[in-house]
């Protein structure tokens, strides 16, 4: 008896919940029915927009394209690659009228099937893949869908396909500018040693090494002052603890400015610099970030960051398709294309805003920009900026171009020549 | 001697005798699914998304690519079993996570150095079983709560794996991942009539059926289940509940290790340095185990259902411009609703049993 009563009660409760749920659902849909202007017209307006533009495509060379931007595992909120990719996509939406959809894979196991499903749907004029983790999945997928266009950002499959563009950066160019500023800051701080904390001994890092050392040597040549150069591989991109230890070692070797080139590892170096500066206010050491603007992490001790503009790369890829100017193969972006450089205060503000929104910093974007502006004025003398502009002009005008070593031997040879003061050894074209 | 005919007759008789039970279970699943989807819909409305559209994307994209669906569910079947079998014997194995790591790592290394898939799978099973047994031994002979041990072991194994994958066994050519599984040791994906069926999925189903047989048709399984239901009666009948715990954890650990090997050999072929391919599979398995009513066959279907939600969830972001976490939240609501009736009964009886054991 008791059991029956209990189950009956349970069924009644369940029924009530279901009815209540249905009632609320219908009530809310009815509510929507009364105010249709907010929800329903959006698809119709976009439809009319697209039909309108198909007629205008003959006059303007820009097509309205459908693009899927596929993030790295982890997706947005990394304050680096994925957030920059989003920025570039939003710009394409605004300037090219592209329709963009975003997707984040759950894990590396999901990457390839996800890419295949997207390719199979045939919905997209272009699929943009963010980051090197996509290299392998793309390699396995691209040949199966010859009509689907792909853009791989910051990596290359090493295979030339008609439906694939790999967008790479000329990292040497931004590292060279950073080298000049780092040298000037070290002198201003009363020292003469600059350092870099690098990740693993792999080709992208070779490019940074060559560029950074080139910048330092260029500074020496132009100013006649001697700068010590330290380059330390940590062997990891993920170990902040190691970044801290190696950062401290570099400081003890006399480094006054340390360039972080090791992903998460160099965040540990930022902490080392902060701790050191707290204990030694009379012997200040500064840090430099890379890829995204990292000034917000510690605006008092990180005056500049090298830029790797993933946003520009994403925009470039979408533009290729939108303007029917598809160039398969490898495309490199450098100073000329705005693909690399030094983050200006607008960039600093953008990332400070992101960080503030994600509660990663308690300083407001305004405060961060103000502090960064002050530290820049305090530690970077005017002549250094002039040198940067001079080198930048030479690079942009095409007067000089950097080498990209393909083997470890070639890389070490270039470094050796640079150490001996032969600046031209790093150059593919032109001479200093 | 049991003839084939006799077996089916037995099966039919068994089904007839328990028809009411099955009917009730079906009703329960149906009702809780309805409640889950309704609760999810309400939450979506509050958040400002159209629930019908979200569900449409979830189901139309989650269950269309069968090959992807089966691949995704493969390790989940095994980690769910890793939770469920010990649960039947009355212990909470939340160490499926670390047991899967060990299986994935050993499977990867054996495959990399010896180029032999069966050996890799055996190594993974032994590794997972060993870790499961370790937790059970501490529980039985030292009285250390298995949940606490498992949580600690999970993190030890997580960081150990992260170290090994970024350090000694890193792929120098592709620094974002570990050394690869060579072609000769990979478990192939079969294409049957245009549908991709992963070899690893077939192996997982076979594994689940074997474990089903052990649990429900052998003496070992019987002892495990009796000890789980009532340790006192088990003792009275001359069984050892301690031994039942050890065997169940051994089987559970072996299953998780097996799942790790299947994942690495049959799907990802290497472990990425962010561990995104392996992380969370053990925890997801707990929900699937409850969803599958701690029954290996139920778990196969629950894992497929759950994988579809996981896959479709990715597309919710794509089509509705929603944050990627929205689908996780929705899946959570649905799974909680689906597993509440069983979890409720399970936890109450678990507490009762613990009290009785003392």
Structure description:
The complex is a heterodimer of chains A (432) and B (358). Chain A is α/β, with parallel strands linked by helices. Helices cover 52% and strands 15% of the residues of chain A. Chain A is built from 15 helices and 14 strands. Chain A has helices spanning 2-34, 36-39, 41-56, 81-96, 108-121, 135-141, 171-188, 203-223, 240-252, 265-279, 310-322, 345-357, 365-379, 382-396, 408-419; strands at residues 66-70, 99-103, 126-130, 150-153, 164-169, 193-198, 228-233, 257-261, 286-291, 304-308, 329-333, 340-342, 401-402, 427-429. In chain A, the strands form three sheets. In chain A, strands 2-1-3-4-5-11 form a six-stranded parallel β-sheet, with helices on one face. In chain B, strands 1-2 form a two-stranded antiparallel ribbon. Chains A and B meet through helix 1, strand 2 and helix 5 of A and helix 2, helix 4, helix 11 and helix 13 of B.
Percent helix range of chain A: 40-55%
Task: Identify the most extensive interface between protein chains.
Answer: A-B, 38 and 44 residues
Taking all Cα atoms into account, the compactness measure Rg of chain B is 21 Å
Outline the biggest β-sheet of chain A.
6 strands, parallel
Structural domains of chain B: how many: 1
Low-confidence stretches of chain B: none
Spatially, the strands of the biggest sheet of chain A line up as: 2-1-3-4-5-11
Main-sheet strand order of chain B equals 1-2
Main beta-sheet annotation of chain B: 2 strands, antiparallel
How is this fold's topology laid out?
The complex is a heterodimer of chains A (432) and B (358).
Chain A: H1 2-34, H2 36-39, H3 41-56, E1 66-70, H4 81-96, E2 99-103, H5 108-121, E3 126-130, H6 135-141, E4 150-153, E5 164-169, H7 171-188, E6 193-198, H8 203-223, E7 228-233, H9 240-252, E8 257-261, H10 265-279, E9 286-291, E10 304-308, H11 310-322, E11 329-333, E12 340-342, H12 345-357, H13 365-379, H14 382-396, E13 401-402, H15 408-419, E14 427-429
Parallel strand pairs in A: 1-2, 1-3, 3-4, 4-5, 5-11, 6-7, 6-8, 8-9, 9-10
Antiparallel strand pairs in A: 10-12, 13-14
Chain B: H1 4-17, H2 19-47, H3 51-62, H4 66-88, H5 96-114, H6 117-142, H7 146-166, E1 189-192, E2 195-198, H8 199-217, H9 219-229, H10 231-236, H11 241-268, H12 281-291, H13 296-320, H14 325-357
Antiparallel strand pairs in B: 1-2
Helix pairs in contact in B: 2-14, 3-13, 4-8, 4-11, 4-12, 4-13, 5-6, 5-7, 5-11, 5-12, 6-11, 8-9, 8-11, 8-13, 9-11, 12-13, 12-14, 13-14
